[in-house]
Design brief:
8 helices, 181 residues, 70% helix, disordered N terminus, 2 strands, single chain, two-stranded antiparallel sheet
């Protein structure tokens, strides 16, 4: 007699003859994953609408729910980090979320920009410069990162650094798509 298997939290387990076959269990798991993906899409759309309506408490709950479904959702990490920084003034929590966003997607340079701005606003100029530079290693022509880096260097009164950064800004090819972002 063939052994049937079912999937649960512990993985594949053999089941008695009358239980659900492995094929049905896999189909159920696939349906569950599809439902979870659909729920994430719905939550992301809802978050966008809540953000446009400036309903921050509901937006926060929506983003936190999204992160419960997918703790590595870079967009949710970034947006919740911004929310904690701008609305709640909870810098430690904002920094943790933005750093997690960077860890999960090093190419999502908006996270570097937000984290660098947070450090700049807190007058931590050297760490802001390091963060902007880290973002520029990912996308060397991102004009916003370059101008933020330039602003930090000017604030530090570092003429050599200002001159070098200004050259980088001026050398961006106007046709480069990243230069407009």
């Amino acid at each position: 007699m063939a052994t049937n298997y079912t999937i649960n939290q512990a993985g594949l387990l053999p089941v008695a003859g009358g239980a659900q076959p492995a094929k049905d269990a896999l189909e159920d798991a696939d349906l569950s994953l599809r439902a979870q993906r659909q729920r994430k899409v719905e939550l992301a759309h809802e978050a966008s609408l809540l953000n446009m309506a400036a309903r921050t408490d509901e937006l926060r709950r929506c983003l936190e729910t999204l992160l419960e479904l997918d703790p590595n959702d870079v967009q949710a990490l970034y947006n919740l980090g911004l929310l904690y920084y701008r609305q709640d003034k909870d810098k430690p929590k904002a920094e943790r979320l933005l750093r997690r966003a960077i860890e999960n997607d090093r190419d999502y340079v908006d996270s570097y920009l937000a984290l660098g701005d947070m450090h700049f606003d807190g007058r931590h100029l050297l760490s802001a410069i390091e963060i902007y530079e880290a973002g520029l290693r990912q996308v060397p022509t991102r004009r916003q990162l370059l101008t933020s880096l330039l602003r930090a260097a000017v604030t530090m009164r570092s003429p050599h650094r200002v001159e070098a950064i200004a050259r980088r800004v001026l050398n961006i090819d106007e046709d480069d798509n990243n230069a407009l972002n």
